[in-house]
Amino acid sequence: xxxxTIQNTDLQLSAIGTGCWAFGGGDYWGAQDQSDATAxxxxxxxxxxxxxxxxxxxNEGRSESSLGEAIKGIPRDQLIIGSxxxxxxxxxxxxxxxxxxxxxxxxxxxxxxxxxxWPIHPHSIRHFxxxxxxxxxxxxxxxxxxxxxxxxxxxxxxxxxxSNFSYKRLKDDVPATVQVAVNELPYNLLCxxxxxxxxxxxxxxxxxxxxxxxxxxxILTGKYASLADVPEWQRRTRHFNSSGTPKCxxxxxxxxxxxxxALNGIEAISRKYGIKMSELAAQWAIQSGVTCAxxxxxxxxxxxENVKALDAPVTPEIIQELNEVTNKLKKELGNHFDYYESAGxxxxx
Length: 349
Known about the structure:
Blueprint: E1 3-5, E2 12-14, E3 16-19, H1 34-46, E4 51-53, H2 62-70, E5 80-85, H3 92-106, E6 111-116, H4 122-125, H5 132-136, H6 141-153, E7 157-163, H7 167-173, E8 180-186, H8 198-204, E9 208-212, H9 256-273, H10 277-287, E10 292-296, H11 300-308, H12 316-333
Helix pairs in contact: 1-2, 2-3, 3-6, 9-12
C-alpha cells in the first residue's frame, strides 16, 4: 500500500480509501448487510487501507452506525475516519451536538477529519433541509470554523476538513487562522473539472485532496454495455440528458455523445494494454494529484478488485492517453464540479 502525508499534519492516508456511503443501506444503494460491511472494513485494514469515509447524512446516520459496528476489534490508531456535517447543521450552537451524535454512532472518542459537507449558502442548504428559517438565515462559515476549532481543542476531532469547496470558496471563505487539512472533491476520468483551478490551489496550499466517485458509481468499471443501461439513480449527473432521466434535476441536455466517446476511448485503452477499466480509472486518479482516492465496496470480493488496481501496470504514457480521450468531455462540462446541478446552479461556486 502507498501512503501520502498531508502537509502540516501527521496524517498519512492510504492511496485508496474505503467509501462507506452504502453502509447501513438506504434508497440510493439498496440494502447492505452488516456482516458484509464489517468484512469489508476488516479486509481493508488487512490490505493496508486506513482511511474510511462517511457522513451524518449518509443513509440518515446509518452509514456512521454501521462503520461504528464494523471497526470493533480494530486498534483505533490503525484507522483514519472522516465524517461530514451538513451545512444546515453548521450553526455554532448545533454543529458541536451533531459532531457528538456522529461520535456516538461511530462508537469512537474522536473523528480524525471532520468536514463541512458542502459550502454554506441557501442554495446548498436547500438540499439538506426544507426548513425555510434555516434556508433564509444560514449559518456563517466563520461560526462553523469556530465550532470546529472548539471541537479540535476538546479532542473530539483531530483535523478540520471541507468537502466540495471550489477554488473561489476556498479563497473567499477560509480565513488565514484556520488550517484546513483536506478538501474532498469529485474526481475521476469523466469528472475532471477540479483540474481547472481547485486541485492546483489545494496542492499549492498544502491541502490534502480526497477524491470521491473514483469509478463514477460503477460507470467506469465497464459493467454497462451502454449509457442506457446505467441505473436511473446513477444517470442524474450532467453527463446525461435530463429529459430522459426523471430523477435528474440539472435540466440540461447533457453530454451523452461526449461521455460515450470518452468511455469508448477508455475501453479501447483497456483492451490495448489488457488492463481492466476499473484498474485504469483507479490508477489514473491515484496518479493525478489526489492524496486518497475513495472506492466503495459492497463485499470483500469488490474490495479485492479495488486493491488489485494498486498493482496495475499503468505507466505515465497510459495516463496521458487516458487524458487525451477524456479531454473533450472535460472541456464540454467546463469548470463546474457540482455534477448534479446545472452550470448556472452550481452549489460549489
